[in-house]
Amino acid sequence: MTTNLVAAIGSLRAQWQRAVLSATGIMVGVSAIILLVSIATGVQKDISDQVSELGVNVLVVIPGRIGESMSFNPNFGGMSYLQERDAATAKSVTGVIDAIPFTFVGGGLRNGKKIASSLLVATEPAWFTMRPTHFEEGRALAENDTNVVVIGSVAKTELFGTKGSAIGKEVTINGSSYRVVGVTTDRKSEQSLFSMGSLQNLVYVPFGYFKSKVANLQVDRIMIHVQPDAEPKALIKKLDAQLSKRLDRQQFQVLTQEDLLGLVYKLMSILTWLLTGLTSIGLFVGGVGIMTVMLMSVNERSVEIGIRKATGAKRSDIFKQFLMEAATLSLLGGGIGLAFSGLVCAALTAYTPVKPLITLGIVAMAISVSLAVGCVFGLIPAMNAARKDPVGALRSQ
């Protein structure tokens, strides 16, 4: 085995220009797959971080039902049948500490001509107890608050800059004036792809006050704070039973963090596998390139094959040598592709909100795929070389 490997490497060194060109196709294919999978892995981690901000003792009631296959329900984009009284119903269930309405306000937040790219929600003061929030300055919403607002540190920077306090300053939401009473702290030091929609960048207005200004305000979510020792699955059954007394079971569903992440991961997995299949075409092209080069090499090295066989080399030795050449070519391309992908991922992390994540599993996948492509597409050239008759091979030149 060692002799065949040394012979394979020596042959590739003698024809290094051809070897580099052959490995380029594999490099492109491996790079495409690694970048795609690492970006998807980074996005999944980013989403996991955002969902985990909810806290381990928080359940979410959504205005629709996810199927058993965790498929997305298109009706989520329509009307919500949840009401404020459903939060009161949920709060009465044993094991629930509190339940509050959560409504997406829509519109935008501005200060003069400056606009903040934040998600606006209306909720109750209990939210800040349900999910402990760190404040850069000011306070949380309080009972009987009217036209006040709590903004995130991202919004503060966009509207008022980094210097000075935002407390007491006026902002405009959908044409109405609100006074800033608190600024939440952005605990993330780096920019995230989803930082604009994270809980650190939400803008909060009092639910009761907003309800007085908007007729027939719908409730988009109900956030439920449960006791730490409550078993989630059993509690969900109790909540389902209580909420279904007024609502149809297709109009709501109680979800845990794991349920939310399961849906996101399923959608991400489908998309990742689809795009991976498309980018695998590059690997196929690279494999065909290796096979073509190796077939040419077999024809050009007929005398070498004849001499090796005449001096005692077995058919299996010839087969192993050429198969190792193809595998080495493919591993070379995969290694270069892996290094190139690492550089691209580092650049994306440093200069963009995208945070790719190359794990040991991705590295192992890249090496395994490269080796497999080399072995598969090197079979035909290796078999052709092994079948050559030594006398015919020596006469060929």
List the helices and strands and how they pair.
Layout: H1 2-14, H2 16-52, E1 58-62, H3 84-91, E2 96-104, E3 109-111, E4 114-116, E5 119-123, H4 127-130, E6 135-138, E7 148-152, H5 153-160, E8 170-173, E9 176-184, E10 202-206, H6 207-213, E11 221-226, H7 232-243, E12 253-255, H8 257-300, H9 302-310, H10 315-351, H11 360-387, H12 390-395
Parallel strand pairs: 5-10, 7-9
Antiparallel strand pairs: 1-11, 1-12, 2-5, 2-11, 3-4, 3-8, 6-9, 8-9
Uncertain residue ranges: 193-197
Shape: elongated
| Strands in their spatial order, largest beta sheet | 10-5-2-11-1-12
Number of helices: 12
End-to-end separation in angstroms reads 29 Å
Which structural category fits the helices and strands?
alpha+beta
Query: What would the average pLDDT be, to the nearest integer?
Result: 79
Tell me the helix content. 40-55%
Kindly give the count of domains. Answer: 2
Cα gyration radius (Å): 31 Å
Q: How many individual β-strands?
A: 12
Beta-strand content bin: 15-25%
Biggest sheet features: 6 strands, mixed
Order of helices and strands: HHEHEEEEHEEHEEEHEHEHHHHH
Oligomerization status of the protein chains:
single chain
